[in-house]
Structure formats: structure tokens, C-alpha cells
Design goal:
The relative contact order is 0.10. The chain is 76% helix and 0% strand. It has 177 residues and is mostly helical. The chain is globular, with a radius of gyration of 20 Å. The protein has one domain.
Amino acid sequence: MIQNTWLEMALYPGCIQGFFLSYLLWQKKHTNREAIRFFIALLLTLSILMLLRVVYQPAFFKKFAEIILLPDVILFLTGPFIYLFTRALLRLEPLRGARLYLHFLPAIVHVLVVNSFLGLHLKGFLHYLDMRQVLLSFNLIEAAAMLSLGVYTGLAMRTYLQYREAFYQKYSAPFVG
């Protein structure tokens, strides 16, 4: 039976609002389209995280243990989206190719390796780790996700401060006319 708590009932409007704002931003054409795309990606990841929290049912994850850590992928994506949004908002040179995809490597490794490996242990198909080690791995993944978000928030802040310093140095010089 599906049960809703106050937190889940508060997440419903936030989730719907996130999807609605993403749609509106996608339809509206702005001059800095790259920044808007990264902001839409950030909004969608947060909305999907809220949606996954709202529809979470323990019985579902007992049956499909391989996907138990998929919501954590969003935590690994939020940091790069914040950093890339900051770069695009400041109109810095966009990252291309390998330099761009490298930021999403932790999320890819999480989906392909960690999520499958720990999920198969929970289902009983693999027996390399005992339950204590699996639970410790969950805590390490959460810590790594929080660390990743903190690092990318710090990178975004550093990028902004460097941009601001360069701007002040450029325009604080006396006009030589």
C-alpha cells in the first residue's frame, strides 16, 4: 500500500513545478541558450530526484535491487551541471569533447559498475562482499556524492571569483584617451 508523509506531499508540487519550469525555459528562446540548457538539465535532475523520492517504495527495491542506487546518480550529475551552468552564464569558452565528458565520468562509473555490483550482491547473485561491506559501500557512495557536489560548487565559485577579478582589473584601469 502506498503511504504518503508530509515530506512526500510537499515534494509533489516541487517536482511538478520543476518539470513545468523546465518546459517553459525550453520553449522560451534566450540569447545565452547554452546556460539555459545547463539550467534546464539542473532543474530536471532535481525534479527527477524529488519524483524518485516521492514514488519510493521499499518493496519495489527489494524486488529490483540492481537499481537501488540509481537516484544517487543524480547527486553525481548535479555538481557538474552547476559548474557548467556557471561557466555558460559567464560566457566562458564552452568545454568540448573529452573535457566535457570527463565531468560526467563519476556518474557513468556509478551506473555501470557500482550500482550493478552492489545491486547484484543485494539480490544474492554475487557473494564477494558481506552485508556489512555492502552497507559500508552505500555510505561511501553517499559521501562521495556529497564530496563531488561540494567540489563542483567550489569550482563554480572559484570560476565566478576569477571572472569577477578579471572584470574589475579590466575596467578599473583609468581611461587613457
